Amino acid sequence: MAKKSVNAGALIFRTVYVTLGIIGIIDSLGWFHLAYRGDWYVYYTNLSNYICFGIMFASLVAEARGKSVVLPRFRFYALVMIFVTLFVYNFLLADERTLYTYFSDITCTLFHCVLPIMFFVDWLFFCKRKCLKVVDPLLSTVMPLMYVAFIAVRGSIINGEAKNIVVYPYYFLDVNKLGYGGFFTWVGILVGIFIALGYLLYIVDKSNIGRR
């Protein structure tokens, strides 16, 4: 990685992100309630935020050492992944929450709103740009589809034995209720939406929006 001058703004911003991320991760594992949540890995929200946290922590360390951040294309994949979290939750899953319950839940607020937006802002203002390839919006669906495949396979294995276990964490992935036709319809719709979102971000990447 090439040496560069330290960007104080990026350093402060990423420090705030990492601090909030640690709080969110601790809460998502149940440790604030003194009860470990063994099903943390089932939730896309958790996994997508953990990946983004790892990227931001590595970026913080690199910035503090005056080095350029590596893997800008992978960061873009993570950006699309976390936007899935942001939009799917707020448009499809949060309808039963009041503003009070939404913002009084630490993990909910951080993982579904604050941290995804901060990750986007960091990409927009502090990251290497104009490095994406035209296929990257398509490739950005790989990690979400890996998660979908994991949930489907896991559900088919444990469904008959499930007792007090979260099998399908989201209604649009519940094969029992939707059938495979409904399941693949939902997956197709979401993949189409986020490929479109990926290409919108691709256009932003090629522009001068947010660039210093």
What is the topology?
Elements (H helix, E strand, L loop, with lengths): L7 H21 L15 H21 L7 H22 L5 H6 L1 H21 L9 H4 L2 H17 L16 H32 L6
Helix pairs in contact: 1-2, 1-5, 2-3, 2-5, 3-5
Write structural notes for this entry.
Helices cover 68% and strands 0% of the residues. It is built from 8 helices and no strands. 29% of the residues are buried. The longest helix is centred in the C-terminal third of the chain and has 32 residues. It has one domain. It is mainly α and 212 residues long. Helix 1 runs antiparallel to helix 5.
Main sheet attributes: strand count, strand direction, barrel closure? none
User: What coarse outline follows from CA principal-axis ratios?
Assistant: globular
| Uncertain residue ranges | none
Overall helicity = 55-70%
Topology as a string of helices (H) and strands (E) = HHHHHHHH
Number of domains: 1
Helix count, per DSSP?
8
Class per helix and strand makeup: mainly alpha
Strand percent estimate = under 5%
Distance between the termini: 20 Å
Rounded mean pLDDT is: 90
Number of strands: 0
Question: Could you tell me the radius of gyration in angstroms?
Answer: 18 Å
Task: Give a nutshell description of this structure.
By secondary structure, the protein is mostly helical. It has helices at 8-28, 44-64, 72-93, 99-104, 106-126, 136-139, 142-158, 175-206.
